[in-house]
Amino acid sequence: MVDLGGKTAIVTGAARRIGAAVARALAGRGVHVVAHYRASSSDAEEMVAELSALGVRSVAVAADFRTSGAAEMVFEEALRLTGKIDLLVNSASIFDEVSMAETTERQLHDNLQINAVVPFLLSRLLGSHIRARAAAGEEARGAIVNFLDSRITDYDRRHLPYAVSKRALHTISQMTALELAPSVRVNAVAPGLILPPSGEGPEYLERLKSTNPLHSYGTLQQITESVLFLLSNEFVTGQTLFVDGGRHLKGSVYGS
Description:
Blueprint: E1 8-11, H1 17-28, E2 32-37, H2 41-52, E3 58-62, H3 70-82, E4 87-90, H4 105-135, E5 142-147, E6 155-156, H5 160-179, E7 184-191, H6 202-208, H7 220-232, E8 240-243, E9 253-254
Parallel strand pairs: 1-2, 1-4, 2-3, 4-5, 5-7, 6-9, 7-8
Helix pairs in contact: 1-2, 1-7, 3-4, 4-5
């Protein structure tokens, strides 16, 4: 397992929820963190202060990934502030609850852009950056973790644009694992029941825990441990790690 200490990571959507947990876990391993956020500036500032107190360098970069050129801007700003990037965790996501009949063209575009296109662009940028460093004589290796969803094996009729975009990211994860090898490894984590949606409490998880074979729900620590494993293990690429209590094994039309 490679030592992550001293490496630099971009974590998108790092101000809140799973992205914030990943940023903290990386900093705990001595990783310098570029924390991307869209609008949660106060959360991002608190995150940067918290991570800096752990002895790593941490900076926040704001960007709305719905706008053209935002992915490139985040990567260039991260490079300007830190000098190099080794790791990328694509956590930023939107989750529109709309059916096929209700889905607008804008919702479809936005979900694909944020949940699939931006991770693709950032992955390609990291690949070019790592290869340029290697060409200059540096022993550079990179690693990427994309966040999927355990329901990519289902048909989620309540969140159609989201479901389409996460399936696209699953394919992108496999393609980039091949295209960026051997200098960059690409893997994915597909969480199940971990956090309740905004506006819901713990009872949401209790109510739905019987939907997976383990009749349980997971924790943020179980997610971050999975991310750290995939970033550290130098002989794993192109994999999707389902952290979902076995939910993906059941298959269903979700929301029917």
